[in-house]
Write a structure and sequence with these properties.
Oligomer: heterotetramer
Structural class of chain A: alpha/beta
Bound molecules: cobalamin
CATH superfamily of the largest domain in chain B: Methylmalonyl-CoA mutase
CATH architecture of the largest domain in chain B: Alpha-Beta Barrel
Number of domains of chain A: 1
CATH topology of the largest domain in chain B: TIM Barrel
Largest sheet of chain B: 8 strands, parallel
Order of helices and strands of chain B: HHEHEHHHHEHEHEHEHEHEHHHEEHHH
Number of domains of chain B: 2
Number of strands of chain B: 10
CATH architecture of chain A: 3-Layer(aba) Sandwich
Shape of chain A: globular
CATH superfamily of chain A: Cobalamin-binding domain
Strand content of chain A: 15-25%
Chain lengths: 144, 475, 475, 144
């Protein structure tokens, strides 16, 4: 059986590597193939990876430095072009400042993000759920 | 709120100074030197020297917001309420990576969306405006593999301290900048510092030994700083600050700080002023305010015990995001307490520190001496990183192997679980093994899953220490 | 602002409890005990016990304002922002001296003109209202030679800790109350504590060893506390807190605190819980905010090193006046840092502490043992004060001779320049002389003018230490 | 020549003794006879002392605990009755709270205080000045 695959990376202006390393390790540990683009990854690089890995279930983007909105500026357009077709999950520290305004998350959805996840431990369940509800025809085996 | 502005100076990004169109807009170095002289404030180097002579630790916040007026207010408020010895312009993450267009766009849309001050975008006149609005000298803190455009604007702004280095501002801060490029870019910066020194202006060049901040073994931090310091001194830099990040283990941290002057004597030419700088804990910060404050004070006390010339503070909001002014003020004030004359009695076990120091010195020597022997040190560094004989954990960059696996020993000191390809002596490796084995109950070889769990545990060291196991503290 | 009120309970002032008209308005003891039980918060004694067992120092502010709503807001704000272990009602100086009419008049004119909360005037229902608005137990801190009316209202309010004693709340707080009167009044209070203990409610009775706060030699403070503790225990008190004021000398303070459990074992019956309480420096406080904060943190650290169960904090506004809420919060938060698990490594020279402790024990024994041998301890105390064989410096009262002249030695510890008529042993006197002689350069007998100058210098010890020579610091 | 004499004390609700002790010592040191009533001294006790010592040049009252206004409530009436004829000097910490409102000092003058002095070291000069300007006929020698 084919391994499940995701594309992982950190947003374009963001160099925080630790969570990225750990999430990649953890997903590999439960059987995923992780295409890890690492830190400082612009949207077009995610799109390229999608082209190379059409079987990827999701693009999973971390952002900690507060710049996620500018860094994902081109996401909606890229999705509209069809260059990214799978769901986009975002997690991390998603705005600048110590007091968090939920409006920052609203803005992300408007930018084309499909799911916002806080805790990396929740990723497998979210991936399962997205896979189960995905509008594609080909039959899939849900694995947990 | 800042009114819309257009991009100044950014066109020079990535180019050698004074060689590109647009450079005309910057004043000549001589004018900047005269400006600093007329400014009527000490340079950062002078402040550091004074602190060392008076046995105090100079104190400096991290601070940077996007808007110009907001930045000015921030600096003024911090000075009025906490009187730090040196103030900071922390630069936003777009500017760091020369994404000047994005910085400009965000600035014009909403400056609050920037995680720092886009100095290149604001331009040097505004830099001078900031400089003139406070009494303390300023430092630029950023994280740019290629900081030449930023440095030029910094010098033109009359700013006398500039952080970074060809290794330490590359590997933790970018993914795909070849090390030769960043080394060359920083050599340019350091050469200009050399020229400025000839013109009578000493720029404090701080090296970012903090690196990726999370579980960095002291000998890695110090080895990379030694290499950068040697390169800087060769390029003409006359004042070098070596920053070391708190590991959280008292003896290890004090030993590492006290090793910095020894390393300077061993590896640097005379006539170069070298200062030890301590970064309050740079890893995962406790969320509970009291816990965070305990850690802030403790860090400041360790800086004092280690004889640091300067301390870079954190705030109780560290775990949440860029702090507000009040939190920043409180962090500074709290850290200042560690300078109290009433704490002269606080001491650390001198024998244990001396022993740890010997080991740190030996490990650093193992790592740097093979490099320093090479005729072309920059090339040697690039090669060493490629081979893993120079390396860092959790690299953001592809240009380090990141094979090192750090681990805390039973006491909390950071050791090498795996030293990767570092050329550490057998003795050193054996000591690391022994210290770590003591912390294993069973001593069995840990599996990969448990390795990840251990690593996460070590990363979350202070959360565990303060009982914030679920990462949800009280703010 | 509080609406006008009429005087409740004050008519009982100076009368034995439950024996005067007006007492009907107070609930019976049994009801108050049931009330405390239903209140759902620990007693002060429990909090102290828990602190001791967990190796923490419990932290408590001074706080009291005139208006009721203002007092409630103050308690709530302090709890919300700094979570002290115990909260205080500091009582105004009119109420302390049973000037209830003046307290009432000021309260109705402008509660902000009161330097504390006039609990008797507000009455016990409002006391309960305060008690119910916070989670921490409350203590009444005041300075009343005759506190019976206040104590009755305190008990009725469900307040489980009450400061004072027949000596320590007389000599520093009033001019012309004969000592026999205050001892009798406090015996009444202690007897009620005994009855409450029988009913199952332990009241923490704190003794004000701080006395006149300025240059009080440790053996004077502790001797008077021992006498008061013995009297309290005989009257039935089951939980005694012995407060000792920071002298400012590390070894002396740690030794004094560590002596308290030894004194308890030596002079008190078993079954009486005894806690050491440390008062952050109670003398002339530095005016500069940073200096004041240095002293606040240092005091808290000394409390920890001395093994105190509780610390009473100061604020950076101490030199200026009653602090505002924010200053109080910041004082508490800063003091809390000394409880940090990260400071386990801080230690004090155990040998020097042990030596100092022996001397303190010996001096206390010299002073108290002749008294404790007497069949009528209260009478013996009155007589000793008359003769000066029990004495305090800077007495506010005529009923102490105030012949003692304290002086700081070369290291800053408080010694006896003159022990007046205290029955100290020759050895002890010789040691005091020697320690003081070491601090004299010439060693010549000082004249009266220089004696006054020396005294002032010692009083202003921390101003000098922090370089605030002209008493004008920066706030 | 007769010694100069003052009456010293601390206000009625106030037990702060240290400055009182030191000021008494210091004035005695420069030759004054100091009738020190000590702490907790109500206005009527000052008036009594004035009766006993008609030669006193001034009544000098310290107050630290913030209660000076209530404590001197009867001063104006006492002066009006003629029970206190010499000038009244007040010093110390003259209101409750850490931020001082000059209005508190105004109120004191209205209560009948003649001079407010901060620094005890300034007392001799103030006493000299009051003596020099005093509206009495008998000739006096100014001493410094
Ligand atoms: C270590 C660190 C660094 C290191 C990073 C080294 C490296 N290359 O990895 C260094 C020192 C280089 C650094 C630099 C900067 N940093 Co930094 N850094 C931290 C720090 C202290 C710890 C981050 C970390 O590694 N945590 C360990 C990992 C395992 O946890 P984590 O990153 O917190 O992520 C958790 C969650 O967010 C989530 N998560 C993270 N990613 C993802 C992704 C997905 C898909 C999901 C589901 C979940 C998820 O899971 C993790 C576990 O719970 C945090 C503060 C803190 N948390 O204590 C600041 C912090 C993240 N940094 C911050 C900033 C701003 C910067 C800088 C811009 C400098 C500046 N202006 O101050 C630069 C960024 C440069 C750049 N180009 O991005 C801010 C972000 C502010 C904001 N959002 O308001 C923080 C919060 C500090 C602060 N309070 O100001 N930093
Ligand atoms: C020691 C002390 C005490 C001791 C006093 C022992 C004793 N019997 O003498 C004790 C612990 C008993 C005590 C009790 C209280 N105190 Co007290 N105490 C102090 C403290 C720490 C030092 C005072 C002192 O002795 N200083 C040394 C002498 C030499 O200087 P000084 O008193 O400051 O006086 C200077 C000037 O004011 C001036 N001066 C003073 N008197 C006079 C008189 C004249 C004529 C002149 C010209 C000048 C002058 O000259 C002096 C030298 O510069 C001060 C705070 C501080 N300053 O650090 C608080 C302080 C004075 N106390 C204060 C208070 C409120 C109290 C209490 C009411 C308790 C409470 N609610 O907190 C009780 C008062 C009880 C009562 N009935 O009055 C407040 C006053 C607040 C305000 N005005 O807003 C202060 C400022 C503390 C504070 N920040 O809250 N206290």
């Amino acid at each position: 059986m084919q391994q499940r695959k995701i594309i992982l990376g950190v947003a374009a202006s963001d160099a925080h590597a630790v969570a990225n390393h750990l999430i990649a390790h953890a997903l590999r540990g439960i059987g995923y193939t992780v295409v890890n683009l690492g830190t400082c990854t612009p949207v077009e690089e995610f799109a390229e990876a999608c082209r190379e890995h059409p079987d990827a279930e999701a693009v999973v983007i971390g952002s900690l430095n507060g710049h996620i909105h500018e860094d994902l500026r081109d996401l909606a357009a890229t999705k509209a072009e069809g260059a990214i077709r799978c769901p986009v999950i975002v997690g991390g520290n998603l705005s600048v400042g110590s007091k968090k305004d939920p409006a920052a998350l609203e803005r992300l959805y408007r930018l084309g993000v499909d799911r916002i996840v806080n805790d990396p431990a929740a990723l497998p369940a979210v991936l399962d759920e997205l896979r189960a509800t995905r509008p594609v025809a080909e039959p899939l085996l849900a694995v947990s | 709120m800042t009114s819309k502005i257009v991009l100044l100076g950014a066109d020079r990004a990535g180019e050698a100074p004074h060689s590109v169109p647009g450079a005309e807009s910057l004043p000549p170095l001589e004018e900047s030197v005269a400006y600093v002289r007329a400014l009527g404030k000490p340079t950062a180097a002078q402040v550091l020297q004074d602190a060392r002579e008076s046995g105090r630790v100079a104190i400096q916040p991290r601070c940077g917001v996007g808007g110009h007026e907001e930045m000015k207010a921030l600096l003024r408020d911090l000075e009025a309420q906490a009187a730090p010895d040196i103030l900071t312009l922390t630069i936003d993450a777009h500017t760091r990576l020369k994404r000047f267009e994005q910085a400009l766009r965000t600035l014009n849309r909403d400056p609050r969306d920037l995680n720092g001050y886009p100095l290149v975008t604001h331009g040097w006149q505004r830099g001078r405006d900031l400089n003139e609005s406070v009494a303390a000298p300023l430092e630029i803190r950023h994280g740019s593999p290629d900081a030449r455009a930023l440095f030029d604007v910094s010098v033109a702004s009359g700013i006398t301290s500039f952080e970074g280095g060809g290794i330490s501002y590359n590997l933790p801060y970018s993914k795909a900048v070849p090390i030769a490029e960043s080394l060359a870019a920083w050599e340019d910066v350091d050469r200009v510092c050399g020229r400025l020194a000839e013109l009578g202006l000493i720029i404090d060049r701080e090296l970012f030994g903090t690196l990726t901040a999370v579980l960095v073994p002291p000998s890695i931090s110090l080895a990379i700083s030694v290499v950068e310091a040697v390169l800087a001194a060769r390029a003409g830099v006359r004042c070098i600050s070596v920053a070391y990040p708190q590991s959280g283990h008292l003896v290890q941290d004090v030993a590492a700080l006290r090793t910095i002057p020894l390393l300077a004597r061993r590896y640097l030419p005379e006539g170069v002023q070298v200062h030890a700088v301590f970064h309050e804990f740079m890893g995962v910060f406790p969320r509970g305010r009291g816990h965070a404050e305990d850690l802030i004070f403790y860090g400041a006390l360790v800086a004092r015990l280690g004889g640091a010339s300067k301390l870079i503070t954190k705030t109780y909001q560290e775990a949440y995001g860029i702090p507000d002014t009040r939190a920043n003020v409180e962090g500074l004030r709290l850290a200042s307490r560690a300078n109290s004359p009433l704490l002269d009695f606080v001491a650390v076990d001198a024998d244990r520190v001396a022993e740890e120091q010997q080991w740190i010195l030996a490990e650093v020597a193992d790592i740097v001496e093979p490099l320093l022997e090479q005729p072309d040190l920059k090339a040697a560094v690039a090669q060493a990183l490629e081979r893993g004989t120079l390396d860092i954990p959790f690299s953001a960059s592809r240009y380090a192997k990141s094979e090192i696996i750090p681990k805390r020993d039973a006491e909390g000191a950071i050791r090498y679980l795996s030293a990767g390809s570092l050329p550490l002596s057998r003795r050193a490796l054996r000591r690391n093994d022994e210290l770590l084995r003591r912390s294993e109950a069973g001593g069995a070889d840990p599996g990969l899953g448990s390795l990840l769990a251990d690593l996460t545990g070590d990363i979350n060291y202070f959360l565990t220490l303060f009982g914030e196991s679920d990462r949800e503290g009280t703010s």
